[in-house]
Amino acid sequence: xxxxxxxxxxxIAVAQLNPTVGDISGNLAKAREARADAARQGADLxxxxxxxxxxxPPEDLVLKPAFLKACERAAQDFAGDTxxxxxxxxxxxxxxxxxxxxxxxxxxxxxxILAERYKLDLPNYGEFDEKRVFQAGPEIQGPVNFRGVxxxxxxxxxxxxxxAVCETLAESGAEILLVPNGSPYYRGKVDVRHQIVIRQVIExxxxxxxxxxxxxxxxLIFDGASFAIGSDKTLAFQMSQFEETVNVTTWKRNxxxxxxxxxxxxxxxxxxDGPMSKIPEMEEADYRACxxxxxxxxxxxxFKNVVLGLxxxxxxxxxxxxxxxxxxxxxxxxxxxxxxxxxxxxxxxxEDCARALGCRYDIVPIFEPVEGFLHTLTQLFEGTKEGITxxxxxxxxxxxxLMAISNKFGSMVVTTGNKSEMSVGYATLYGDMNGGFNPIKxxxxxxxxxxxRWRNGQVPPGALGPSGEVIPNNIIxxxxxxxxxxxxxxxDSLPPYPVLDDILECLVENExxxxxxxxxxxxxxxxTRVEHLLYxxxxxxxxxAPGVKITKKNFGRxxxxxxxxxxxxxG
Length: 571
Prior knowledge:
By secondary structure, the protein is an alpha/beta fold. The chain is built from 16 helices and 19 strands.
């Protein structure tokens, strides 16, 4: 039976915000501002995301006692705010208790912490390694009573695995499940989350509110896109993706909502009012993820501006567009560094791109430094043939110039290698790999082209750059080239990019065997060569700048292969 004194209407605000790892006072201030906003909108309760006060993921900061104490002080201070009679709060924070250090939430109302809940299922795969720093909660804890409504609060992975937390909470009398999450972006992730939650709704018969963090944290992008699935297994509300927002959703008991359907829960709760935002399509989502990741990496790490080498090629052009969209034209310096092999087309394309974007554009010829290196090494190299070594001196001269500009003006270098190149080592250590962050590190070459075409026709929400053709069509249409020797193209050294990308996706994302890849129609010699290049380039990738995670398996956090590795798939 329903409690006669319990309310029939509950207004739950979902705070989809962008915390900064380690900025406990800043995150607390952000939480207070969101709670005040929710109060103005008439909210009864504000649901924040996983480990919000610490920022997520805090990684080994959790091992520092001083960090844990600061987080708990902030949680207590925030709980004290609820003495004003405004909304109650559910907010994530690490807590050290006798049972261990836990990924936790506090539930506070009326000026007090009324309950704590600890994450039970600690993820330990891909980008997650929570078992290193947290202990699982000792047991499934029951619902909390919020002003007469029983709320279950599983934490992120608790609804992804097979621990039956949702079902147990339903059996313990929960009426609604509120889930704080730190779920990173990859392509198609929103649909995956929806399916996970629908599966749990089917199991427990309760509506589930899924609150997800927003913002960039090193390689990870948290895309928001918070939502709820009603007990009838339909989408109850959908918040926007890649945007900070506080949305108040209105929930009514079934008896108070005439004609409402509530599935397995005859006196359950139905969402009568909430946002229904459109989720971006694939290219837009990837572009906005890259833009958000670059913006947050630059701003959260305190860089005033960025610099990149603008070669006239597709990769540097899209990185320049991302930088202007993320930061504004005044915060990007683009530098063309021509040598004897730089074509007139590349000089024109780079200038046209910079002009279209409105950013500063400098030309710094590298003839003298490269010739100086060659002269210095003449005696040492006597009797050898010119080749890759001499080509790489051009790339390393450019890298040195960009780092000098960085040192002199405090600009972060944006490095511009795509995933296809990084996979097979088609990049120069201490040359074009120099930089602080790479917004396209997890995009294959053909995806870079797709995003460039998309951006020329669209301006994404929140972008600071201009509309129209910001990447000249000639850059998109011409054959890609590193221009390190006469008449060079990438296809002199690599398979055609559509072929290379498909093979790499099979090897990297899907861990497919050589025989299975050949069965897709690829030449066996090409597949084994690409596999070999992939393995021997591991040492380069270990020294590469961090970059935005876009795919299910990025280099670094997700794919961790040994550098010293003699395994090859013989088929």
